[in-house]
Amino acid sequence: MSRWRLPDWLVAMTTRFLLGEIYPDIVAIALSFTEDNILTIRYYVDREPNDEDYESMSELDTNIEASLPLGFLKAVNLECIRAKGRANTLDPLDGFVYLKYLP
Questions:
Q1: CA-atom Rg of the chain in angstroms
Q2: Domain coordinates of the chain in residue numbers?
Q3: Spatial distance between the Cα atoms of 74 and 6, rounded to a whole number of angstroms
């Protein structure tokens, strides 16, 4: 995984596609984007991941890829992990695009 800052265009695009798509079980969404144009989308959920989580990630991936030139992304990795512990213990990859506020 790289540790460089997410491109602004990717953050803006992802944020736009997440409007209305965040559901209560999502704790955080992290992205990684490498210099080789490999994207990782990771959902953290507060229960065991299920098919709906993977469907949601797949929809986000489809929207991102459809907005980019054909073949721009060399690979997309979809990961869904049960969040254990507080948000500050989660791996942000290259950055969070969503992080649930818990007082």
A1: 13
A2: 8-99
A3: 16
CATH class held by domain 8-99: alpha beta
Which residues 6+ apart lie within 8 Å of 38 measured at CB?
A: 32, 73, 74, 75, 76, 77
d(CA 83, CA 26): 9
Closest CA to 33 of 11, 55, 63, 59: 11
Distance, in Å, from the CA atom of 81 to the CA atom of 21, rounded to the nearest integer, reads 18
The pLDDT tens digits for 14-39 are 999 999 899 999 999 999 999 999 99
The model's pLDDT over 83-93, given as tens digits with 9 standing for 90+, comes to: 987 878 899 99
Question: How far apart are the C-alpha atoms of 46 and 82, rounded to whole Å?
Answer: 6
Bridge-based pairing state of the strands 26-33 and 95-99: antiparallel
* pLDDT recorded at residue 28: 95
